[in-house]
């Protein structure tokens, strides 16, 4: 699938270019599963007006999920969730100072009424956010459902094919 010509269903945003090393694990899963997506740097603190525009236009532009990754004072996912009904999947990026615990607590401790689905700190969280976004879309997109089922089956087969950890 050519990701450039199909309207994106998932927005992947991050607070800084420095978050890309982590967030690329989300886009890798989306690409693998054929989920049309877009990628943007949108900072809650450095580009607040862009954040408002992005969040308020997301639903009308056809986005069905937003994966938002940020580190430290990680306000991006919560602020997006405050301004759109599109489901927001938060990824705590591993910060240098506090190893991502600051990011995790900033994202997960939302007040009742403004949910952010929060994932694990770092690469695993980003990967799982990509898979979760695909799962959200699977009910309405048979191609994504099939790709997700194939991914899960292969993952299981790979483990079963090599049960002895001493073997290379
Ligand atoms: C957050 O501050 C970003 O999400 C990033 O994780 C962190 C550090 O950003 P840089 O100083 O590397 O741009 O807003």
UniProtKB/TrEMBL annotation:
Lineage: Bacteria, Pseudomonadati, Pseudomonadota, Gammaproteobacteria, Lysobacterales
Entries under SUPFAM superfamilies matching the protein: N5-CAIR mutase (phosphoribosylaminoimidazole carboxylase, PurE)
Function, as annotated: Catalyzes the conversion of N5-carboxyaminoimidazole ribonucleotide (N5-CAIR) to 4-carboxy-5-aminoimidazole ribonucleotide (CAIR).
Entry's EC annotation: 5.4.99.18
Species whose genome carries this gene: Arenimonas composti TR7-09 = DSM 18010
Name assigned to this protein: N5-carboxyaminoimidazole ribonucleotide mutase
Family that this chain belongs to: Belongs to the AIR carboxylase family. Class I subfamily.
GO biological process terms on file: 'de novo' IMP biosynthetic process
GO molecular function: 5-(carboxyamino)imidazole ribonucleotide mutase activity
InterPro entries: PurE_ClassI (IPR033747), PurE_dom (IPR000031), PurE_prokaryotes (IPR024694)
HAMAP family linked: PurE_classI
Record domain PurE: where: 8-159
Catalytic activity: 5-carboxyamino-1-(5-phospho-D-ribosyl)imidazole + H(+) = 5-amino-1-(5-phospho-D-ribosyl)imidazole-4-carboxylate
Gene from which the chain derives: purE
Enzyme kind, highest EC tier: isomerase
Record key words, sorted: Isomerase, Purine biosynthesis
């Amino acid at each position: 699938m050519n990701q450039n010509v199909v309207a994106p269903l998932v927005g992947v945003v991050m607070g800084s270019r420095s978050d890309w090393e982590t967030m690329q694990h989300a886009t890798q899963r989306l690409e693998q599963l054929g989920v049309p997506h877009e990628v943007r740097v949108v900072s809650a603190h450095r580009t607040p007006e862009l954040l408002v525009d992005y969040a308020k236009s997301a639903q009308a532009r056809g986005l069905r999920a937003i994966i938002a990754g940020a580190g430290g004072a990680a306000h991006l996912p919560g602020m997006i969730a405050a301004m759109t009904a599109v489901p927001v999947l938060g990824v705590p990026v591993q910060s240098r100072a506090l190893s991502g615990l600051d990011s995790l607590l900033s994202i997960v401790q939302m007040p009742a009424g403004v949910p952010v689905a929060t994932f694990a700190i770092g690469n695993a969280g980003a990967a799982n956010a990509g898979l979760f976004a695909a799962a959200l879309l699977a009910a309405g997109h048979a191609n994504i459902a099939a790709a997700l089922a194939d991914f899960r089956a292969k993952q299981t087969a790979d483990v079963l094919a090599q049960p002895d950890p001493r073997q290379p």
